[in-house]
Structure formats: C-alpha cells, structure tokens
Amino acid sequence: MPQPRAFLSFDFDHDLDQKVMFAGQATRNSPTSFTVEDWSSKSPLPQAQWERLIESKISNTHMLIVLVGRWASSATGVAKEIEMARRLNVPTFGVYVDGAGSTTPLPTGLGRGRVVAWSWPTVGAAIQQMMGEGKNAR
Length: 138
Fold this sequence. Notes:
This protein has 138 residues and is of the alpha/beta class. The chain has one domain (5-133): Rossmann fold (3-Layer(aba) Sandwich), CATH 3.40.50.300. It is 36% helix and 15% strand. It contains 4 helices and 5 strands; from the N terminus they run E-H-E-H-E-H-E-E-H. It has helices spanning 16-29, 47-59, 76-87, 120-130, and strands spanning 5-9, 35-37, 63-68, 92-96, 115-116. Helix 3 (76-87) links the parallel strand 3 and strand 4. The model has no long low-confidence stretch (mean pLDDT 92).
C-alpha cells in the first residue's frame, strides 16, 4: 500500500495556525504514517484558475482532511474543496481544531459522523479507514 497523501482543507482566515501545527505534527505523532502536502495556493488567483489548480491537487491525493474550526462553515473555499473531493471520489473526513466541537456548524458537504477529535490515534484510525474508501477501495 502506498503511503497515504492528504490534502488539508482549512479556513485560511481563521485556522492557518492550526494547519501549520497539524501538518508539522503529522509525521511525528500519527500512529498511521501519511504525508501532508502543502498544496495551498501561494498567492491569490482568479477563481477559475484556483479551482483548476486545487482540483488537480486533490485528485493526486488519497484523502481530503478538513480542519474544522469554529468558522469553517462559512469558508466558501472549504465547501468547494469538499465538493471537488466528492466529485473525484476522494474520501473526506474532518478534524475539530481551535475549540470547535460537536455543536460547531460544519462546512457544506461534511457530515457530523465524518469529523473526529484531534487526537493522533483517532486521526490515524480515520486515515486507515479512508484508505479503504472511495477511489482507494479499488
């Protein structure tokens, strides 16, 4: 089995620090080995160009991990990335960050049962599950 690659979806305006921490800790702390590719757009792009770029990057991953912060439900880019992953058959799950929890509104397209607490054993188990779903189930 290849080492899982994950695309991180997050609310750039509110959860950039959590994204940096999650990505930095992933290789050291997760019981399931996976890589987080920093495929965020490095500069503002016209909408159509951003969508083509991000969809291409998501298609080259095994899963989309949504960092669900307190304001993620209003982040339009997050909802678009979730929809792209759905169209591409890329399995998706979320991780609560920045004080978010089971009553936090979720981004469109992400079900409550697909969001886990940020503990590395729980994240590792979700990664293993994603490797048997969607395009990874082949």
